[in-house]
Design a protein that fits this description.
Elements (H helix, E strand, L loop, with lengths): L1 H30 L7 E4 L4 E2 L7 H10 L3 E2 L8 E5 L2 E5 L3 E3 L2 E3 L3 E7 L2 E7 L8 E2 L4 E5 L5 E2 L12 H9 L11 H14 L9 H10 L6 H17 L2 H11 L1 E5 L2 E4 H10 L8 H10 L12 H17 L5 H8 L17 H11 L5 H6 L3 E4 L3 H18 L9 E7 L6 E5 L11 H4 L2 E2 L5 H9 L10 E4 L4 E2 L5 E2 L10 E4 H6 L3 H11 L1 H11 L17 E2 L1 H12 L3 E2 L5 E5 L5 E4 L5 E2 L3 H17 L16 E6 L5 E7 L4 E7 L10 H16 L12 E6 L15 E6 L18 H10 L1
Parallel strand pairs: 1-15, 3-4, 12-14
Antiparallel strand pairs: 1-11, 2-10, 4-5, 5-8, 6-7, 8-9, 13-14, 15-25, 16-17, 16-30, 18-23, 19-22, 20-21, 24-27, 25-26, 28-29, 29-30, 31-32
Subcellular location: Cell inner membrane
GO molecular function: penicillin binding; peptidoglycan glycosyltransferase activity; serine-type D-Ala-D-Ala carboxypeptidase activity
InterPro entries: Beta-lactam/transpept-like, Glyco_trans_51, Glycosyltr_51/Transpeptidase, Lysozyme-like_dom_sf, PBP_1b, PBP_transglycosylase, PCN-bd_Tpept, UB2H
Length: 751
């Protein structure tokens, strides 16, 4: 008997020591930072105002992506109703860098492709309304575990009651372990002859998920019970319940684990948790028993049966009325086709965001601190870019070798340098090699605007109507090799105007011009345009032997599109902490690199590329009133197909080619330009309208001789010149009525 007492005392001491150890574990982890939360990346918020260029169809697509419910009458946050050209919606409100945007009820009226009216619920005009931004992904740690943290006062009606009814009816009465629940589970399982019900409390489930493994053993169960009691000893029920709501495992999205009801609501319904109805809450709570077994996307019949069982439990316990239960059970599951938060939705853009963030933040800051990253990403433009690429490649697929062609695309705002869409692969939703950022490819004729800009910065020597020779020539290099450039059509075109060399992408006249200017001077112009790569000053560089990524090309053309002002491309606007406190802004930077007059002349020549040169096919699909500027690029054996072009509000660069640098059947005009044209047709941009700089003047000239003319002379056209470089005016050509200047100007372009 004495030995038994001694052994009992030793056991109690060991048990007490183990309990003290467990108590320290519980307090240390539960009192500190309980979760590492990955950074969340958001698209740009849609800002509504009268006059905004936005079609009703695009607006509704964005509302669908944000998870707004379509209802006959918009009722409650996240609801929208459509009647003709009017959309009524209840916005959700959001915490932005500048402050909180309140939830409100608004009415948006459309006319054509524009917002024609914006009012509050009472009818008062509204200057601007901003929707919450679309969550486009996150930056995950090596063990990708994700959650959207919620507070207990943010959960919808019936959430707690449903959880109690299904998982732990005695939650507010027990102290971590419920003997009544254990006894009830034992009885149900014994009478059923199978395991039908568990006896674990919510606190025990939280302990298992938070502290322990899924091992099934008596020792693990005993440890779980002890820790549950200790947890309830130190923390109140509301705190434990809130932790459970954020910790419970509810599914798997690829490699990413879905934890907590906040994220599960977004993942399965594309809605915030606060907006869920009874039937949706019942589905999520029902899934706690087996997230994989009751996955509504994979096993909808099981999920529906389980959801309806939970609804019946709510009716049995008087949480909802029998009539409400019947109505709830008649609702469809209502889950979205795929998870709205998939981290592979826009992999190329997210990859770019990560790279830019790593310049300012440590890896653990991005994967653990729950930062909120606001970007310039435009989901509407991204969708149009993806559809344009897919449609064009499908249309070209009959050509030999097109199926091996890869692609990249960069879309930005010419004025701000903000990247609005990015494609890194012909399969843009699959993560992998990001060609937009990493594919370094020879740029071909895309370099030519830099050569002509170098010339036009010397107005005493070169104007758009200077005569240049498009004739064969050869240059002997330092290595003794002879360089003999050729035109694409293998023909020489004689004496031409300077602008015609760029418009028609003639190699002979362009290379000769570049050699006259000096290759080092052209490379300096490229550097001022934003190209940071150091290229050797070989003559072949003048025809695009140098290689850049699509992002670097976009940087170069950004300066051309923005009147000579260099604006570094950026994807991030601002960063907030997990608590919504402002952390860092990324304002756009701007630096004037070129005389606006010289840029104006280059833009004029690039508009002629589109009207009469290698880009003229665009106007078979786009209205002639849409002024655009751009340049095609094709490398040797058509290994690379490029196009870079811009309107007033959109710059887009497209590259097509093979990863193995093999030949393709596509030139810049037959490949990349086709994608660009399709995108511009869908994006419906504003026409290019660069104000004429003070140092530029328009002069009338004879289109055949380039000499000064008079507007009354037949065929006379206007051309822009840097002031002082224009030809002297010609004499009037008679007393007849002057030629219609606008029509004559257009006719001159078409010659």
């Amino acid at each position: 008997m004495g030995w038994a007492i001694k052994l009992g005392l030793v056991g109690l001491v060991i048990l007490a020591g183990f309990a003290i150890y467990l108590d320290a574990v519980v307090q240390e982890k539960f009192s500190g930072k309980r979760w590492t939360v990955p950074a969340k990346v958001y698209a740009r918020p849609l800002e509504l105002f009268v006059g905004l260029k936005l079609s009703k169809e695009d607006f509704l697509k964005e509302l669908d992506a944000l998870g707004y419910r379509r209802e006959s009458v918009s009722n409650g946050p996240g609801a929208a109703s459509v009647a003709g050209n009017t959309v009524d919606l209840n916005t959700r409100g959001f915490q932005f860098y500048e402050g909180a945007e309140p939830a409100q009820r608004i009415r948006v009226r459309f006319s054509g492709d524009y917002v024609a009216g914006l009012t509050q619920a009472g009818g008062a005009d509204l200057a601007v309304a901003r929707l919450e931004p679309l969550l486009i992904g996150g930056l995950y740690p090596a063990q990708p575990e994700d959650r959207v943290l919620i507070k207990l006062d943010q959960v919808p009606a019936y959430m707690v009651e449903t959880l109690m009814a299904t998982e732990d009816r005695e939650f507010f009465n027990h102290h971590g372990v419920s003997l009544k629940s254990i006894a009830r589970a034992f009885w149900v399982n014994a009478t059923a002859g199978e395991l039908r019900q568990g006896g674990s409390t919510l606190t025990q489930q939280l302990v298992k998920n938070f502290f322990l493994t899924n091992e099934r053993s008596l020792s693990r169960k005993a440890t779980e019970a002890m820790m549950a009691v200790l947890l309830e000893l130190h923390y109140d029920k509301r705190e434990i319940l809130e932790a459970y709501l954020n910790e419970v495992f509810l599914g798997q999205d690829g490699q990413r684990a879905i934890h907590g009801f906040g994220l599960a609501s977004q993942y399965f319904f594309s809605q915030p948790l606060a907006e869920l109805k009874v039937h949706q809450i019942a589905l999520l709570v029902g899934m706690v028993k087996g997230p994989s077994y009751y996955n509504p996307r994979r096993f909808p019949e099981r999920a529906l049966e389980r959801r309806n069982l939970v609804i019946d439990l709510l009716a049995e316990q008087g949480v909802i009325s029998p009539e409400e239960a019947v109505a709830a059970k008649q609702k469809p599951l209502g889950v979205t086709q795929r998870g709205s938060l998939a981290d592979s939705s826009y992999p190329a853009f997210l990859d770019l965001v990560k790279r830019q963030l790593r310049q300012d933040y440590r890896e653990e800051d991005l994967t653990e601190e729950g930062l909120r990253i606001f970007t310039s990403f435009d989901p509407i433009l991204q969708s149009k870019a993806e559809v344009s690429l897919n449609e064009t490649l499908k249309r070209l697929s009959g050509r030999k070798g097109v199926d091996q062609v890869e692609s990249a695309m960069v879309v930005s705002n010419p004025e701000t340098g903000e990247i609005q869409a990015l494609i890194g692969s012909r399969q843009p939703r699959f993560a992998g090699f990001n060609r937009a950022v990493d594919a370094v490819r020879p740029i071909g004729s895309l370099i030519k605007p830099a050569i002509y800009l170098t010339a036009l910065e010397r107005p005493s020597q070169y104007t758009l109507t200077s005569w240049v020779a498009d004739e064969p020539f050869s240059v002997k290099g330092q290595d003794g090799q002879v360089w003999r450039p050729q035109n694409y059509d293998r023909r020489a075109h004689g004496t031409i105007y300077l602008y015609q060399g760029l418009a028609n992408s003639y190699n002979l006249s362009t290379a000769k011009l570049g050699l006259e200017l000096g290759v080092p001077n052209v490379l300096k112009t490229l550097e001022r345009l934003g190209v940071s790569r150091e290229w050797p000053a070989y003559p072949s560089m003048l025809l695009g032997a140098g290689a850049l990524t699509p992002m670097e090309v976009a940087t170069m053309y950004q300066t051309l599109a923005n009147g000579g002002f260099n604006t570094p491309l950026r994807a991030i606007r601002s960063v907030l902490t997990a608590e919504g406190e402002p952390l860092k802004r990324y304002p756009f930077q701007i630096q004037q690199r070129f005389d606006p007059g010289a840029i104006y002349l280059v833009q004029n020549a690039m508009q002629r590329v589109m009207r009469e040169g290698t880009g003229r096919s665009v106007y078979s699909q786009l209205p002639s009133s849409l002024t655009l500027a751009g340049k095609t690029g094709t490398t040797n054996d058509s290994r690379d197909s490029w196009f870079a072009g811009f309107s007033q509000d959109l710059l887009a660069v497209v590259w097509l080619g093979r990863d193995d640098n093999g030949k393709t059947p596509l030139t810049g005009a037959t490949g990349a330009l086709q994608v660009w044209t399709s995108f511009m047709r869908k994006a419906d941009p504003l026409p290019l309208d660069m104000p004429m700089p003070d140092n530029v003047t328009q002069a009338w000239i004879d289109p055949h001789s380039g000499q000064g003319s008079d507007p009354s002379c037949p065929g006379a056209v206007q051309m822009p010149y840097i002031r002082g470089s224009e030809p002297a005016p010609g004499a009037p050509c008679g007393l007849g009525a002057p030629v219609d200047s606008v029509m004559d100007w257009v006719r001159g372009w078409m010659q």
